[in-house]
Amino acid sequence: MIWVFFSEEEFTSSIAKYNNLLTPGLDKLLWRHLKNIIKDKAYLKRIINIIDVCFELGHWPSYFKTSTSIVIPKPNKESYDSPKSFRPIVLLNTIGKLIEKVISGCLQFHSISNNFIYSSQLGSLKYRLMTDVGSLSLILSNWDGSRTI
Q1: I need a labelling partner for 142 at 20 to 30 A (CA). Which of 84, 90, 92, 110 fits?
Q2: How many whole angstroms separate alpha carbon 26 and alpha carbon 93?
Q3: Which residues pair with 73 in a beta bridge?
């Protein structure tokens, strides 16, 4: 029996946030290509099925882990004699990046909804802006249990 870990909506909402002009991954697949591929629900279901089977088996294929680093020069530098004049970037497979983004979103959602993260450690999590943290701190500091908000 195959467990279903991820939904179509999680993948479509995650991929929608990627800019079509970003550098292609190690697999030379552009985000606009992947967006067009998953418009066909049959292909999207196949990708999700592969990921679900990987989770069920506890095996993450090396294809998704393969990366390469390239060094690009920073623009408008007077001299390129110093290492500070260059920027290394890492290229991962595009599908692997999408899967990592979906997994990250799921982990954040479940961690927050099950109170696994202490309220003072909400920085850089989705749906947790500093104004939310400030409001939460104010509510918790004034909370005496006798009234509801």
Answers
A1: 110
A2: 5
A3: 86
Cβ atoms within 10 Å of 99's Cβ, excluding its own = 21
* Strand 67-73 relative to strand 86-92, pairing: antiparallel
Amino acid at 95: I
Which regions in the chain score pLDDT beneath 70? Answer: 1-4, 118-149
Q: Report the pLDDT value the prediction gives residue 125, as an integer from 0 to 100.
A: 59
> Torsion angle of alpha carbons 44, 49, 54, 57, nearest 10°?
180
Domain count, the chain: 2
Residue 133 within a domain: yes
Tell me the whole-structure pTM to 2 decimals.
Answer: 0.64
Q: Which of 9, 5, 11 is nearest to 110 (CA)?
A: 5
CB 76 within 8 A of CB 93: no
Ordered DSSP codes for 25-61? -TT---HHHHHHHTTSHHHHHHHHHHHHHHHHHT---
**For residue 58, which of 3, 114, 96 has the smallest C-alpha distance?**
3
Q: How far apart are CA 130 and CA 128, in angstroms?
A: 7
Instruction: Report helix, strand or coil for 86.
Output: strand
Q: Does 72 map to a domain?
A: yes
Residue 46 sits in the same domain as residue 69? yes
